[in-house]
Amino acid sequence: MPWIQIKLNATNENAEPIGDMLMEETGALSVTFLDAQDTPVFEPLPGETRLWGDTDILALYDAETDSNRVIEQIKASNMLAEGFAYKVEQLEDKDWEREWMENFHPMKFGERLWICPSWREVPEPDAINVMLDPGLAFGTGTHPTTSLCLEWLESLDLSGKTVIDFGCGSGILAIAAIKLGAEKVIGIDIDPQALLASKDNAQRNGVADQLEVYLPQDQPEGLVADVVVANILAGPLRELSGIIKSLVKPNGELAMSGVLDTQAEDVANYYRDEVQIDPIVEQNEWCRISGRKQG
């Protein structure tokens, strides 16, 4: 059947409430969030300075939906500023699930780590293979921030070590750390759905007994690890810098991503008092900040 898609521009702060409103009040069949700087769906006109937010929302509707009514409902909600950016598009009828599956391929990180969807043949059976299907929680390896963190983990000797995945999402980094030799991994996330996704994916990979997951308020007191990885966003990395630093053992390793190249130095400065920062690594405008906590 045919569809229409409504694209809206929002911010990190209001994107999820707007998504909930679109699902509950306007009849959206699905809602997807995109980073407006990484994959923009609104291109500025020549000479125009973009003054919109940092998150684009894609809402899918049955083709018979009155798009004008939906836009009026969005305006009436007062959740977006007057004159907010939006587009309404018709989508041709396709087997969307099959097309999506065909475009998701095994990916290699470093010398020995592969992330593989379950419906694809494993390219190197003797390599370290993490089986992971895209789902509700963030993290499949396709985004540069995840890729940067996976490559960093692959470069470490994790044998017998404890790792904390701060903002674990789908569990991709946690599972990769276990497969790379970590003795135990602790996943922390503010989203209960992420914790469920992490446990489910760990179960599929046969490593569930080595993974513990917690909401921040439930994590054990005095929690520390040999290695901490935090693939979140620049704002939380700044705001939670004290907490994140406290999770790293003296002489332990720390890596952070979810940071644009324009933000990296500022974020790194929040950690330099306790962490010897490595040269910042950049990939497609996204950065990884890593280093060793001073003893």
Automatic annotation (TrEMBL):
**What are the binding positions for S-adenosyl-L-methionine in this chain?**
T146, G167, D189, N231
Which species does the entry assign this protein to? Vibrio hepatarius
Q: What is this enzyme's EC? A: 2.1.1.-
Q: Which GO terms describe its cellular component?
A: cytosol; ribosome
What is the name of the gene encoding this protein?
prmA
Q: Which Pfam families match?
A: PrmA
Q: Which GO terms describe its biological process?
A: methylation
Described by its record, this protein's role is as follows: Methylates ribosomal protein L11.
Q: NCBIfam families from the xrefs? A: prmA
| Record bears the keyword S-adenosyl-L-methionine | yes
In terms of InterPro entries, this protein maps to: Ribosomal_L11_MeTrfase_PrmA, Ribosomal_PrmA_MeTrfase, SAM-dependent_MTases_sf
Family membership: Belongs to the methyltransferase superfamily. PrmA family.
Q: Which GO terms describe its molecular function?
A: protein-lysine N-methyltransferase activity
Q: Give the reactions, separated by semicolons, that this protein catalyses.
A: L-lysyl-[protein] + 3 S-adenosyl-L-methionine = N(6),N(6),N(6)-trimethyl-L-lysyl-[protein] + 3 S-adenosyl-L-homocysteine + 3 H(+)
What is the annotated localization of this protein?
A: Cytoplasm
Respond yes or no to whether keyword Cytoplasm is given for this record: yes
* Protein name (database record): Ribosomal protein L11 methyltransferase
Keywords of the record: Cytoplasm, Methyltransferase, Ribonucleoprotein, Ribosomal protein, S-adenosyl-L-methionine, Transferase
